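Section 4.2 – Deliverable D4.2 (structural model, holo form)

The reporting period included a commitment to supply a predicted holo structure for the target in complex with uridine-5'-diphosphate. Inputs used:
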Amino acid sequence: MRIVVTGAAGLVGSHLAARLVGDGHHVLAVDSMTTGQPRNVDWLRGMPEVTWIEQDIAQPLEIEGGVDAVFNMACPASPVDFRPKALEIMRTCSEGVRRLLEFALEHEAIFLQASTSECYGDPEVNPQPESYRGNVSTIGVRSVYDEGKRFAEALTMAYHRERGVRTRIARIFNTYGPRMRLDDGRVLPNFLCQTLKGEPLTVYGEGRQTRSFCYVDDLVDGLVRLALESDFVEPVNLGNPDEVTIRQVAEEVIELTGSGSKIDYRPLPEDDPKLRQPDITRAREILGWSPTVDRRTGFLRTIEDFRQVLAMHPTDG
Ligand code: UDP
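Output (structure tokens):
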């Protein structure tokens, strides 16, 4: 197949591109490089099965020849980007998604929209099934991303219902793995850079808030099953249900890196969700999917990647 992957220089996009190439597909890799990583692009550019296209998805995508599927993974996704890139995020989730849906319609391609657990906001239900409609502030600092992605889901369903596009929606929960940006601002990159440099780990609030961390290869497998091996149109949660407090993550990182770092408690960011755990019953039943990489194994692989990158670029992070 010829498959477009947008956000191909990001964590999920670059691993997805590699998986699709490994499965024998040709990948048209698109990224605007606003938050994508040059080291992920260098690696992609070197592959003969990849065509590299540097552009924003809010601009028209001009690709010659047929396209069988589009995976839209493009959007700044770290909470530290929500304030400085607010308008860009809203444009990406509206005009960007609209253009890609038109593109999928024109090419009669499958279209997968990367949605998010942020659709559930600060959830009052735990774990969160797809039927839960969420608790989202429409005006808070996170709203550009949360409401942007909710709008993107609505637009995706509208193109399915009114134009017959073969759409899929993946609600992705916290994902991690090698090739994360050192200065990404999210919890694991922060903790890993801090501990590897012997600095204190910045735990926000009391660290009692929870998240559920999914290793990137597991997530990518779920995305491929959903887009290419199913015809399920409604949203599907993809994440690892192994819920953990942020304080426990800090303790595990300190233990696994063997560092003597202490914990430094900082104020909790505005609207920070207190709980997050995917109910993956639907993914299990429809895709036969569940994560296989436990946190310890995934953390060790990610630590190794961060060690190597920091050894080459000691001032980064
Ligand atoms: N967090 C933290 N220290 C950090 C970065 C994040 O304690 O240096 C917390 C953050 O407040 C949140 C959780 O870790 O409760 C996950 O944050 P992240 O930015 O990774 O993603 P989110 O799940 O909030 O989108």
